[in-house]
Amino acid sequence: MIAETTNNVILRSNNSVETFFSIKEENTAHIFSILRGQLYSDKLMAIIREYSTNALDAHVASGVSKPISVSLPSFWGDGKFVVRDYGTGLSDDDIKNVFASYGESTKRNTNNQVGMLGLGSKSAFAYTSTFLITSYHNGIKNVYNAFIDESNKGVVSLVSSTETDETGLEITIPIKAQDAKILSDKCYSFFRYWDNIPTFNNDNIVRQINVFKASSKTLEGNNWYIVKKTYGEPTLIVHMGNIAYPVSTENINIESDDRKLLDQNGYTIHLKADIGDVTNSASRESLELNDKTQKWIINAINNINTEIQKVIQQKVTKCRSLFEAKSIYYDVSFASMGIPSYKFDSYTITNNYLQISGAKVKVYYNTLANRARIDKHIVCKSNMFYYVASPCTPEYTIKQRLIQYLGDNAKPTVIYFSSDAKADEFINSPEMVGASLVHIKTLPAIQSVRSKSTRTAMVDAEYYSYSRYGCNNSDHWKVAKEVDLDEQRIYVVISRFSPERNGLKFDISNSTLADLDKYGITDIIGVKQKHIKSVGDSWLTLPEALRKKADELYYNNEQGINKILESECVDEVFKVMHRYKNSKSDINNPELKYIMDLLDTVDNDYKSANAYRDIRMISAYINYIVPHQPYIVKEKQEVLMKDEKINIISRYLKSPIDVYNQLLQM
How far apart are CA 128 and CA 308, in angstroms? Predict the structure, then answer.
């Protein structure tokens, strides 16, 4: 690249004494170490960029059209990064006087090549203290070892010299094992923008680059294009000499009316500069935002603003239908920052909504297990599938077919028509050319499996599996694809994705069901009221399952319970647990009222095992802890103090889990 020069006009006095700036010999090693170690912030990217662009410059100078070769280190052994060009190579004098000389360059008189600073050939020293240079020149293959010697300046040493028929230059850099994957990822990030992709020893990176290049550009004009921004990408990238330079748009001094493109956040603007149009920094990691670079960028942005309306109209003209014309609106509008409308045939496109007459549109914005939003239009997107339903497909199987075909977490748009003829007319409509339309009747039907040994209810029975994870009620219930009716299961009746009482004495919630795991009550099935008759004969309601579990808890721990009853510390424990109000009529909490009823039962029969079972059942399905305010029932206090059974109940009420754990340890 032609170096920029400045013609300075100097005014001197006749008697001035001048001294030139210089570098003393004893400071050379220090300056070299700065150029090696502190010039590049990303040292791996530096060796990729510097040696690959130098190789490309060698091809330009020699008129070689074939791509350069890049060899990446394997993740399990061969720790070498190799860049090979097929130019004329370097003579021994060139290696000593150009390659090994800081600031020396043969490229300052042409804009056909990227280099000109005389620094890139030494960039390997930013990462390693030694690397190999192999030159194929005039029938001789010379291998050199470049390394940092005792003087800290660096040395190039000729290792071997043999005859060869090849030409070119090869740089071999040792790579640490932990950096192999990082280097590979950086190679993808760098080479994906190249026009003439290098040949690699790694097929994976080639596939990645080809996929990237195949991705569509939202808008494209003369030496610019706009694409959707990916994570970590800047708003503006300037390409010069196969190097993509990220540019901070905050530092571009452009008029506010013209910088709308630079102020948007969803898209990346790519500008293509010829070599020499802008000025890169010494490290070539960024651009110098000097007057020259700023002027070129501002002019390029103004050209886009002038050209973009024409580019959009050309893009619209290529659309085959109203759907396609509307499907590009979102990207076009945001990428151009403010194009309010454009024409397609007789239509003025102002949004990407397409009204569907005579149909109901359901949009599942979360998952298929959730309720859908009802619309009268679809949102046109080129990469989206639309599912069409009509009377030929039973309505109760539609959601189940979609779940079977797409999975539970899909968010489809379903268009319901009142007749099969209208559905077919919509699918074949000229306005929908280019849309991905799928008639649900073409999806695999749900096959119920029924036999004498095993009866299976499919999802059309509206069975749901409980999951303890989720934020909203609907997150806790996923449609069960297949449920064995002959297997004993525990179920609750659900409404609006919340469990109903269905005979339970207390209100329960989805979070309550999560607490039941510790009591061994899992795999709960939710059943809607309209399907309650379809449950299996051996299925248990939640109250039945809890009472069964309470019986197991009591009879498995009967001796432990008696030990607590016989403990001498029972009275002392109860003395600090006065937890009852003056009368049950003052208690509004249904849980507390039920507990008071149990206490009355215990008063009459303090040996009652059923009372313990009920208390245990309370702790199991409500996991309820009585508020810690002290309550005193004066007329009952003496009776309660005399009753050891009540003491135990009080301990259960204060912390049912702790006492239960204590029983298990006995």
Answer: 47
Give which of 41, 45, 40 is closest to 186, Cα–Cα.
45
**164, 139 in Cβ contact below 8 A?**
yes
By the 8 A CB rule, do 130 and 146 touch?
A: yes
**Which of 151, 148, 164 minimizes the C-alpha distance to 89?**
164
In this prediction, residue 22 carries a pLDDT of 72
Q: How many residues does the chain have?
A: 666
* Residue 149 backbone zone (phi > 0: left; psi -120 to 50: alpha; other: beta): beta
**pTM of the predicted model over 0.85:** no
Retrieve residue 377's tokens.
Answer: 């239009």
Q: Which residue segment(s) compose the domain that 93 sits in?
A: 25-207
- 250 and 227: one domain? yes
pLDDT of residue 485: 78
Q: How many Å apart are CA 482 and CA 415, to the nearest integer?
A: 26
Q: What is the CATH number of the domain that holds 203?
A: 3.30.565.10
**Cα–Cα dist 114/54, whole Å:** 8
Type and span of the H or E element at 548: helix 542-556
Question: DSSP strand E in 459-500: where?
Answer: 463-466, 477-479, 482-484, 490-495, 498-499
**Are β-strands 490-495 and 477-479 bridged in parallel, bridged antiparallel, or unpaired?**
unpaired
Distances (CA, A) of 290 to 176, 294, 296, 392: 38, 6, 10, 69
- In this structure, the strands spanning 377-379 and 224-228 are unpaired
Q: Judging by DSSP bridges, how do beta strands 243-247 and 168-174 pair with one another? A: unpaired
Specify whether the CB–CB gap between 487 and 536 falls below 8 A.
yes
Half-sphere exposure of 265 (CA within 13 A, CB side): 2
271 contacts: CB under 8 Å, gap ≥ 6 = 223, 224, 236, 237, 238, 239, 297, 300
**pLDDT, averaged in runs of 10, over the chain (666 residues):** 60 71 74 75 92 91 92 80 94 86 62 61 88 94 90 87 94 91 92 92 89 84 88 88 88 75 81 90 87 91 86 88 89 65 87 90 81 88 91 83 84 92 93 93 68 44 75 79 79 82 54 64 83 82 70 54 44 34 41 45 41 44 31 33 40 42 40
Per-residue CA distances from 163 to 133, 142, 144, 179 (Å) = 16, 9, 15, 35
Alpha carbons 573 and 564: distance in angstroms, whole number: 11
pLDDT of residue 338: 59
d(CA 307, CA 222): 9
Number of helices and strands in the chain (H, E): 20, 29
Dihedral of the CA atoms 306, 276, 110, 104 (nearest 10)?
-170
pLDDT of residue 66: 93
Q: Which of 157, 183, 207 is the last residue of a domain?
A: 207
Q: Looking at the structure, do residues 435 and 479 belong to the same domain, yes or no?
A: no
Measured CA to CA, the distance from residue 280 to residue 429 in angstroms comes to: 54
Q: 268 and 393 share a domain?
A: no
CA pair distance 375, 431, nearest whole angstrom: 19
What single letter denotes the amino acid at residue 449? V
| Alpha helices in 358-496, H assignment, sequence order | 395-406, 420-427
Round to the nearest angstrom and report the end-to-end CA distance of the chain: 86
Same domain, 605 and 523: no
Identify the pLDDT of residue 593: 47
The pair of structure tokens assigned to 512 is 């309550």
Whether residues 565 and 659 share a domain: the answer is yes
- Assess if residue 657 is contained within a domain: yes
Residue that finishes a domain, picked among 207, 231, 248: 207
Closest CA to 465 of 514, 400, 523, 533: 523
Answer yes or no: do 584 and 460 share one domain: no
Number of domains in the chain: 5
Place of tokens 């040696």: 51
